[in-house]
Amino acid sequence: MKRIGWAIALAAAGLTPAAAQAPQTQEVTGPAAATAPSERAQGQSLDAANAPAPSTPEASNAAATKMSASPVPAVLPDASIGHPTGGKGIQTQVTDIGREAEAFHNNWLLLLCVVISLFVLGLLGWTMVRYRRSANPTPSRNSHNTTIEVIWTLVPVLILVAIAIPSMRLLRHQYSPPKADLTVKVVGNQWFWTYQYPDNGEFEIVSNMLKEKADVKPGDRFRTDADGPPLLAVDERMVIPAGKVVKFLVTSNDVIHSFGLPAFWQKMDANPGGINETWVKVDRPGVYFGQCSELCGARHGYMPIAIEVVPPAQFAAWVAAKGGTMPGAAPAPTAAAVPVAAAAPQTTAATPAGAEPNVANRATAN
Ligand SMILES: [Cu+2]
User: Fold this and answer.
1) What is the signed CA dihedral for 199, 202, 203, 206, rounded to 10 degrees?
2) CA 43 to ligand 1 centroid distance, Å
3) Ligand 1 centre and the CA of 31: distance in Å?
4) How far apart are CA 306 and CA 308, in angstroms?
């Protein structure tokens, strides 16, 4: 009995990682890899934002070249990832943790639920037929059966062990983050998000939901398909580099919000007066949508989250466009900073590059 139990537990332990390691062979093609016209980022033309995505590789390259000069990398959303699908299953997972959790759910928990449900249904059916009054006129008066009692105690214990082992392993992977390449401070507000980049010169972006055309004053910016689906598209997306470990420090300015991104297997409460830490590493560039997942007031349903995952070089260009710097990079000389540096050459020379990454940028940003 015991041996069978341990065999089940070990099988459970072995099943999940194998499934979790199965690579998802989805290529980054189509709109997710394409870029939108840079005019949109400049806010010059709404028609430009409504223009179709470049479909040929040449067009994509041309757009990508334009992109590098654009202050905002505008990746077009791809409805096959990072979006609510309207289906019953879990969104396509794009992080290792997400894939491990998805495999645990689909290949093990669901399987166990089905097996247990069928077993109980069969047992019920068999009992109703076999022990119906006409077939069994004199019921048994037995009240104890040691063997049965040992089985019905031990089997549920073993089932729980078989669930606990992969579950604990998932939690361990989730809560032992690798060293972060980038930190983003996520702040919930009634009812929008702000994202701060403390490693990159402490600039901040404010992310508000985009309204529909009918809901805005003439001339104001409204949502287009290039921004994303209704109720999920935002005016300023958080941008993070692909393939890098990104640490999120999640907090709130007012009430409890929750920073939830289904495609990353990611949800973290944003509590006022406290900081929760979580992390993601996304290898696949694209736009991913989430929502505040804690009832936080009247407009709780209107504070979506949009995260744009871009190649590291494009991320660096975006940071520079926002007035930030990359860690370790010398701050770019600016008109305001040059005279100061010239007046006090000994202090700038004594400061190692990157130690004071953003004095110049802070001065010019303000
Ligand atoms: Cu909220």
Assistant:
1) 100
2) 28
3) 29
4) 7
- CATH (one of 2.60.40.420, 3.30.70.920, 3.40.50.300, 3.40.50.720) for 182-321: 2.60.40.420
What's the token pair of residue 230?
């209704």
| Residue intervals in the chain for CATH 2.60.40.420 | 182-321
- Angle 91-92-94 from CA coordinates, rounded to 5°: 120
Report the b/e string of 159-174 with b at 16+ CB within 10 A: beebbebbbebbeeeb
**Cα–Cα distance measured from residue 173 to residue 167, given in angstroms and rounded to the nearest whole number:** 10
Q: Tell whether the model's pLDDT for residue 356 goes beyond 90.
A: no
7 beta partners: none
- 210 CA → ligand 1 middle, Å: 16
Length, in residues, of the chain = 366
Q: What order of strands is seen across the sheet that includes strand 203-207?
A: 203-207, 192-197, 182-189, 245-252, 276-281
Report the separation in Å between the CA atom of 295 and the middle of ligand 1, taken as the mean of its atom positions: 6
Ligand 1 centre distance from Cα of residue 135 (Å): 61
CA of 188 to the centre of ligand 1 (A): 6
pLDDT band at 326 (very low <50, low <70, confident <90, very high): confident
How far is the centre of ligand 1, averaged over its atoms, from the C-alpha of 8 (Å)? 42
Report the chain's mean pLDDT, rounded to a whole number.
Answer: 77
| pLDDT tens by residue, 146-173 | 999 999 999 999 999 999 999 999 999 9
91, 181, 240, 288 from 317: Cα distances, Å:
30, 16, 12, 20
Helices 57-69 and 312-321, packing angle to 10 deg: 40
Q: How confident is the model at residue 309 (pLDDT cuts 50, 70, 90)?
A: very high
**Cα gap 180→278, rounded to integer Å:** 10
